[in-house]
Predict the 3D structure of the following.
Amino acid sequence: MSDAMREIRSAAFPPQLRLPRGVLKTLSYSLMHLSVAMSVAYLLTGSWKAALAIGLIEPAVQTLAYTFHERAWARAGAAQGGSPGCGHRYRCAPQT
């Protein structure tokens, strides 16, 4: 990136306004998930209203389901000798 482009970018997006990469990645994934869910719903129903409803509800339900899924895997890992709360039997350091 050239110096002029860096200056423009810094002026347009000062460091205090920039979001961390993880936040940007989460936001972009959320938008992609929404667009895919809405597209599939529209193809199946032919209705934009139904597609919008499904597209907004499905990611929320999926997030809730993922939370329970992660908790179950964390418990299973702890039961098999992994670190509690880690969920990965071989990648987490044992707690002493």
